[in-house]
Amino acid sequence: MKRALSLMGIPVSPGVAVGRAVLWLSREDTSPRRTVEPEEISAEIERFRRSAESAVEEIQNTASQVAERLGPEYAAIFQAHAMFLKDRAFLGPVENRIVQDAVNAEWAVTATADSLVARFRDLPDEDLALRGADLDDVARIVLKHLGDESGSRLKMEDLAGEALVLIADELTPSDAVRIPRDRVVGFATERGGATSHAAILARSFGIPAVVGVPHLLESVGDDRIIVDGRDGVVWREPSEGVLALFRDRREQEAQREKSLKERSVGGTATTTDGVEIAVCANIELASEVADVCEYGADGVGLFRSEFLYLAASDHSFPGEESQTAIYSDVLRRLAPRPVVIRTYDLGGKKGARQLVGTEELNPVLGLRGVRLCLARPEMFRTQLTALLAAASAGNLRILVPMVSGVEEIRSVRAMLIEARAELVERGVPVPAHVPLGAMIEVPSAAMTADLIAPEVDFMALGTNDLIQYTLAVDRANETVSDLFRPHHPAVLRLIARVVEAARAARRPLSVCGEMAADPTLFLLLLGLGVREFSMGPRTVPVIKELAREISVTEAARVAKAALSLATPDEVWALLALEAREILPSARRSRVPAVPA
Amino acid sequence: MLEETITLKNRLGLHARAAAKLVHTAAGFESKVTVTKDGDEVDGKSILGLLLLAASKGTSLLLRVEGKDEKETLAAVKDLVERRFDESE
Q: CB of B47 within 8 Å of any CB in chain A?
C-alpha cells in the first residue's frame, strides 16, 4: 500500500466521496499488433463487422439514454458517431488493412482511426478539427467490442460491490454519460476547470468532483481515495484517522441535507415577522428541472438559455422547434411555478468568439448579452418566437441580460410584438401577457433603475457582474480577485437604489447572483429590502431555513448600520458580528465570502 | 444523371450536424450522390467524406446524382441545403 498523500485541485461539485479509484484509461495505450494467418483473414473481417454493428447498437442506445437524461441537444453528436461506423470511408480502409497487411482487426481499426484523425486535425476550421476527438471515441467503442482490454474503459466486474471514484485525464460528454450512476460516487480529473464537462456533469449528478489536479494520474492507481468536493482535495490512501473524519463529515452532511430538503419541499419560507420570501433556483440544463422540485425551490429564477448553444457539441443554436420543445418541457414540468428564462447571454467570456466575429480586447465590456442579440436579430428573433410559442405550457417570464438602458428594453418589446404577430398568423396560441424583465447588472442600469422599472414587468439583480463592473475588478483576474467584494459600500448603495426603484414602481425584484446563497450576504440583502432570491438548487434548502429563522426587522437594522460605514472591511466586520448574534452557528459563512 | 451547383447558406456550413442530416437524407434514396468542392469529389452518403471537405458558409458545391430516383434525390438534397439544414442561422 502506498503512503498517504493529498493533492490539491479545483473543487467543482460539493460533498465527500470515499471509494476505490478506477483509472479511466487513455487511448494512448495502443492496441497490440498481431499477424493474422491467410486462412484466418475472412474470419477476422467478420469479427470486425460484427463488432462495428454492436458498436453502432451501443451508440444508438447511448443516444436515447442521453436524450432522456440530459436533453436532446446532447444526443445529436451520437447520431453522427453511429454514422461514422456505417461509412465506407472508415469501414473500407479497416478491412483493406486486415487483408493487405494481414493484421488483426484491433490494429487495423487503430491505424485507420489515427490516419483519419490526423486528416481532421489539419483542417483549418477549429470545430471540424475537433471531430477527430469524436472519431477517437468511436474507435474506442469498436475496440471494446473487439474485446480489446486497452479499449475497455472500466473493469467494473473486477470491483464488484465497491464504491468507485473515477480518475481520468479528462472527461468528455460521451464518457461522462456512460458512467453508471449507481456505482460511481465521485470523480477527479487531472485537467479541466470550473466549467469543464466533468464539473457540469458532476453537479448535475450530484456527486463530488475535483478537477485540475496536477500529477493525479501518476500518483493514483487503484488506491483507496477520498475526493473532497468542498475544499478541492484528493486524498490517496488516507489514514484511518482521516477516513474517519471524512466519513463523519459525510454522514453529517447527508443527515443535514435530508432534513433540510424535507423542510424546504414542505412549503415557502416566511420570516419570523411574517414576510414571505421566495427562494428559486438558477439552472442551465433541462436535466436540472428535477433538482428544482427535489430541493423545494419556489420556481426557477434564472434559466441560462445560452447553455443550449454552449452544450451543443458543434456549437450551433437549436432551431425554433427544438427550442420550443425544450422550453415547453421545462415550463410544463414546473407549472404552476414561475420559470424565468433569460435570453442568450453570450459573448464576454462565454465561448462566443465565433459569434462576435472579431477578437475583442475587452470582451467583458464588448458585444455581449442583449447587445449581441440585437446585433444578431435573426438568431434572437428565433429565440423570442420559440419562447412565446412555449409560453402556454406553463408560467413563463422572459429576462433580458446586460441591459444598459431603456432603449434596449424598447427594442426587445418591439421584437416580441413582431414575434407574437407571426405566431398568431401561424395559428399558434400565445398567452395574452408574458412578463418581460430586465437584468440589472450594468451600473448604468442600476443608476437608472427608476427609468427602467416602469418599462418592464420585473427586474433581476445580477450581482456577479454588477459588482465586477462597479468596482472595476475582473473576478477572473487573480491579481485583483480579493478586491471583488460584494459588501463594498458602493455595491450596497447601488442595490439599495435598485430596491427603491422597484418599490416605487411596484415591480418585483429578485437577486440571482451567487451572493444570495451566502448566508451573511443573504442577511444583508434581506435587510436592504430584497424579497426574492435565486441560486443553485442545492443551496435552496439552507437559505429557506435561514429565512425562517430571522426577521426582516432585524435584517433591516443591520443593513442600515452597514450603509453608514465607509470601507468594505468595516462592513464585513459589522456583518460578521451581527451574523454571530442572529444566525444559527451552523449557517454562518466563512470570512471573506467571494461568490463563484 | 443530374447535376446542380448549390451554395451553403447556413452559418456553420457543412459541420457535423449538417453533414449527418445530408447523409441521412441521401441515404433514403437509391441514387448515387456525389458532392464536389474545388475538384474534390466525395460520396454524399459518407459522413467522413463530407466533413473532410471542410465546406463553410458560402461555399459552392457541385451535386451529382445518378439513379432511378435521381430527380427526387436531387430535389431533397437541394431543399435541405436551401432550408439551411433547419438551423436558425
A: yes
Interface of A with B (CB under 8 A): 76-77, 79-80, 83-84, 87-90, 116, 119-120, 123-125, 127-128, 131, 134-135, 313-321, 376, 378-379, 382
Distance to chain B for A26, nearest Cα, Å: 24
Task: Identify the helix (H) or strand (E) that includes residue A572.
Answer: helix A568-582
Task: Encode pLDDT of A64-106 as tens digits.
Answer: 877 777 666 667 777 888 889 999 989 999 999 999 988 888 8
User: By residue range, what is the domain housing residue A192?
Assistant: 5-25+153-251
pLDDT tens track for A213-243: 999 988 887 889 999 998 999 999 999 999 9
For the whole model, what pTM was predicted? 0.61
3-state helix, strand, coil in chain B (%, to 5): 40, 25, 35
Domain boundary among A100, A124, A151: A151
pLDDT in tens, A163-196: 889 888 877 655 654 566 678 899 999 887 766 6
Q: Which of A251, A285, A319 is the last residue of a domain?
A: A251
Higher pLDDT, A368 or B8: B8
**Cβ atoms A533, A510 nearer than 8 A:** yes
Give the pLDDT of residue A516: 87
List chain B domain ranges.
2-83
Same domain, A437 and A316: yes
HEC-encoded secondary structure of A463-498: HHHHHHHHHCCCCCCCCCHHHCCCCCHHHHHHHHHH
Q: How confident is the model at residue A270 (pLDDT cuts 50, 70, 90)?
A: very high
Domain contains A257: no
A316 → closest Cβ in B12, B20, B49: B12
Residues of B in contact with A83 (CB under 8 A): 20, 23-24, 47
Identity of the residue numbered A77: I
| CATH no. for B2-83 | 3.30.1340.10
| DSSP code of residue A191 | S
Comparing alpha-carbon positions, the chain B residue that sits nearest to A125 is B54
Residues of chain B numbered 54-83 and touching chain A (CB < 8 Å): 54, 56
In a domain, A31, yes or no: no
Separation of alpha carbons B27 and B31, rounded Å = 9
Tell me, yes or no, whether A125 and A163 share the same domain.
no
- Whether A399 and A276 map to the same domain: the answer is yes
Active site residue B24: no
**Predicted complex ipTM:** 0.82
CATH number at residue A346: 3.20.20.60
